[in-house]
Here is the input.
Amino acid sequence: MAQSKILLYYKFQPIADPKAIMLWQRDLCESLGLRGRILISEHGINGTVGGDMAACKRYVRKTKEYFSGIEFKWSEGGAEDFPKLSVKVRNEIVAFGAPGELKVDAEGVIGGGVHLSPAEVNELVAERGDEVVFFDGRNAMEAQIGRFKGAVVPDVRTTHDFIPELDSGKYDHLKDKPVITYCTGGIRCEILSALMINRGFTEVYQVDGGIVRYGEKFGNHGLWEGSLYVFDRRMHVEFGDDAAQLGHCIHCNAPTNTFVNCDNGECREQVLMCESCAGTPELVHCGNDACQS
Ligand SMILES: [Zn+2]
Ligand SMILES: [Zn+2]
Here is the structure.
C-alpha cells in the first residue's frame, strides 16, 4: 500500500487574482488525487490536503513555485480523512471579520506580533517570569483540554468573536505587558496579534508554528499542558503518553478529553463527556434546558 500523508500550510502574501489561483490549485489537486480544504483570498492561502506521499511531494513542489517560502507541516493521514476536495475564494482565509483591517505584503502580515521559536518562548518566560501573559488565540472550547500554563482564554465561540472581545475593555490591563499569543499552527495568531497591536497592546508575540511546533519541541515537559484540539476526525492529539488531562465531563465531572456533539440537531454544540455518560442515550446533550428534553 502506498504511504499517504496530510499537509497543513498557510502563506500570507498579496494575490492579485485569487480566482485564477483557485482554479490552478483545484486543477493541481484534482490531477494529483488530493482531497481536503483550501481557502484563498487576496491576502493568501490556507489549506489542508491529504493524499499519496508522491502526490503530496509534487503538490508541495508546484505550490512553492507561486507561494515562495511557504512551509508545510506533514502529518499522518490521507485523502480518506476528507469527504471531498473543496477549493474556494473567500474574503478572508481565517474568518475574523476584519478583511479591511488586515494588511499583507510579500513578507506576510504587516504589523503582527514578534515571532518566537519554542525555545525563545521559554527564554522570555525565564527572563520576565509572571509578567508574561499567554493569550489563547483559539475558540474557548479548544482550551478546555489543553493550554499554556496560566493562559488567558478569551470568551470566543468562533474567531469572529475576537474583535468585540478585544474591544470590550476586558483585557486592557494587559496592554502594557508582554503577551504571547498562540494557536494550533500559528495562522490565527498572525492576524490576532496584528489586531491586538492595532488596539494598543504594546508588546505582542506569537508562537512560531503554533502549539504544534512547541509540542514537537518540548512535549509535556515545557509550558504546554494537556491535549491539542484538532479539526479532523482525530479530534485531539497528545505530545506523548504523559499528557495531563485537563478536561472534565459536563455531566459527572470525570476526567476526559473527548468532545461529543449535542444530540439536538439544532444545537450540535461540542461538549466534553466521559465514556460512560456518552454511552447513556439520555445524557448525550450539552446541558442546555432545550437540549435536555
Ligand atoms: Zn460523565
Ligand atoms: Zn445542545
About this structure: The longest strand covers residues 4-12. Residues 259-291 form one domain. The mean pLDDT is 95.
